[in-house]
Amino acid sequence: QVQLVESGGDSVLPGGSLRLSCTASGFTLRTYSMGWHRQAPGKERELVAMMGRDGGNIWYRDSVRGRFTISRDNAKNTLFLDMYDLEPNDTAVYYCNTATPFLPWGQGTQVTVSS
After folding, report:
1. What pLDDT is recorded for position 21?
2. Cα distances (Å, whole numbers) of residue 38 to 41, 89, 105, 109
3. What pLDDT does 41 receive?
């Protein structure tokens, strides 16, 4: 059974940092181009970072480029998103999925950036 479990979200002050994790089961992450998506209140879900199957072809949304880093641990079948210099506009529920999402969504992990 395919399952994605996100964790690591928290409430932080502007300028803070977080590391999000997404552990996959039922399939191997490197089979697909994987991405981190987020959905802010009242907004549509959007892709913020993606990584190709071979670990290359990394892409970031303009608003997070230079502040977020996507990575993967193949041995743990886990995808990461390191987030630095967080801004209030980064507040959202963060999910992992394929870059063009087609797997069942996990529960997501809440990131709140507020002073």
Report:
1. 98
2. 10, 11, 12, 9
3. 92
Cα–Cα distance for residue pair 68/61, rounded to 1 Å:
9
Kindly write down the DSSP assignment for every residue of the chain, as one continuous string: --EEEEE---EE-TT--EEEEEEEESS-GGGS-EEEEEE-TTS--EEEEEE-TTS---EE-TTTTTTEEEEEETTTTEEEEEE-S--GGG-EEEEEEESS--SPP---EEEEE--
**Residue-level pLDDT at 63:** 97
Q: What is the largest CA-CA distance in the chain?
A: 40
Distance CA 23, CA 34 (A): 12
Give the whole-angstrom CA distance, residue 103 versus residue 34. Answer: 10
Distance CA 61, CA 100 (A): 14
Would you state the pLDDT for residue 10?
A: 98
